[in-house]
Amino acid sequence: QVQLIESGGGLVHPGGSLNLSCVASGFTFSLSAMSWYRQAPGKEREAVARINRFSVATNYADSVKGRFTISRDNAKNTVYLQMNNLRPADPAVYYCHAITSGEVQYWGPGTQVTVPS
User: Which of 10, 30, 43, 73 lies 20 to 30 angstroms, CA to CA, from 22?
Assistant: First the structure.
């Protein structure tokens, strides 16, 4: 059974930090590219950050470059998103996403991030 379980969301004031975690099971995590997406009310889901299976390449949305950092620990089947200097534009449900070597995609249920303006 495939599972992606996010944690670490919550309420933080502007300028604060949160560290999201996503623990994966049921597929070969180390061979999968991992990403974080987010979706705010009334908006489409957007890609925030991506890390390839070897942790060599990372990509970020322009809106989070320099503030967010994606990383992974293949020994723990976990991907992280360190979010610094959070802004009122960042609140959303943040989703963990996996693409396996066989191009199968999985999503977590999401974790809420709230930044009051």
Answer: 43
∠ CA 45-79-11, rounded to 5°? 60
| pLDDT tens figures, 64-95 | 999 999 999 999 999 999 999 999 999 999 99
Separation CA 32–CA 71 (nearest Å): 13
Helix H or strand E encompassing 18: strand 18-25
The answer to whether the beta carbons of residues 33 and 99 sit under 8 Å apart is yes
Q: Is 31 helix (H, G, I), strand (E, B) or coil?
A: helix
Tell me the three state secondary structure of residue 19: strand
The encoded tokens of residue 37 equal 């997406």
Give the span between the Cα atoms of 45 and 104, in whole angstroms: 19
Give the CA distances from residue 98 to residues 10, 16, 77, 83, 86, in Å, rounded to whole numbers and listed in that order.
Answer: 23, 27, 11, 19, 24
